[in-house]
Amino acid sequence: MLKIDDLRQKMGFNRSQIAPALQAAGQDKLAEKIAQCATVTEIATCQGCGTKYYAGSGYCKSRFCSICAKLRAMAWLAKLVPLLKEYVGRGYVVFMLNLTLKDQSDLERGLTALSDAWRYMTNGEKTSRAKFKQLNSGGVRSTEVKIGKRSGLWHPHIHAIVLYNLKRGGKVRQFEDYRDLWERAVRSALNCAADAPKLSGVDIRAVKDYTGENSLLSAVVETFKYIAKFDWIEIAPERVNELVTKTKGKHFISAWGVLYGLNKQVEELLNRSTEEELKQHVCTVCGCSEFELEHALTDIIPKSYLLDFPK
């Protein structure tokens, strides 16, 4: 869970930046939902000594909320980083794989093409599917949407954290292989001729720092923090509306291979109740493990009133 000060800062950002941008785009209902995120806080009072702890808040779970984006990243850190370390200890290497396609004027078409191309490469056309499975042992991927810096068009793309078992032999940086596979998949998704100009891009970056954790941490946060960086609040209202409308109801995170099912575990972690969380805590003052829950408005809780549960 977030610390209370961090929570308050993000509440302010939601209200001053995100909600107005959504209102300007005609997304009043979503704006109100995000503006109200975490306004009620749960307080856990130790039954032994009366010490009060911040025990979480009610969250909106919107993919456009800065609070829920941070919580999502924290959940992925909690689940994925220890697992990646375990695989590294067993002889695997980790790398980031970014897949793009030509920027699109229509976001829905771009998202559909991105999804179709991924499906073609990983679970569709027989030759591509077999080659993809040879190149990695599994991974997790998410879709991000932003505006292309040069084109000014929609730039949907995929971030993936990928595992490869060195014991299988072969190359670790298979750039040419991924480039050819992804270009073929994108051409199929966009129904383009073989002699059409290049339609896709591939970037592979090794995650080298396993002991200091910085590289693993930054890779996970970069991959799973948000569907769109919060600079979307600065684009034209009609495009904000298109972003919200065309991404509604779509699932943008999935796992495959040795990490299959991990996204479901993360969702379970995000949906865990406060009562379940409290079972893991003891009072740092007296050592008691029994707490009573009460509720209060987040904004009016004195800063010095609560302690944060230690991580």
List keywords for this structure.
flat; about 20% strand; 4-stranded mixed sheet; about 40% helix; 5-stranded antiparallel sheet; 10 helices; single chain; 9 strands; about 300 residues; alpha+beta
Strand content: 15-25%
Which regions are unreliable across 5 or more consecutive residues at pLDDT < 50? none
Helix content: 40-55%
- Give the beta-strand count: 9
Apparent shape: flat
Question: H/E element string?
Answer: HHEEHEHHEEHEHHEHHEE
* Whole-angstrom Rg: 22 Å
Could you explain how this protein is built, in words?
The chain has 311 residues and is of the alpha+beta class. 42% of the residues lie in helices and 21% in strands. It contains ten helices and nine strands. The protein has helices at residues 4-24, 28-35, 66-89, 107-123, 126-135, 175-190, 214-224, 237-247, 262-270, 274-278; strands spanning 40-46, 52-57, 92-101, 138-147, 154-165, 200-206, 253-257, 291-297, 307-308. The strands form two sheets. Strands 6-3-5-4-7 form a five-stranded antiparallel beta sheet, with helices on both faces. A four-stranded mixed beta sheet has the order 8-1-2-9. Strand 4 (138-147) and strand 5 (154-165) form a beta hairpin. Helix 1 runs antiparallel to helix 2, helix 4 (107-123) crosses helix 5 and helix 5 runs antiparallel to helix 6 (175-190). It starts with a helix and ends with a strand. The model has no long low-confidence stretch (mean pLDDT 89).
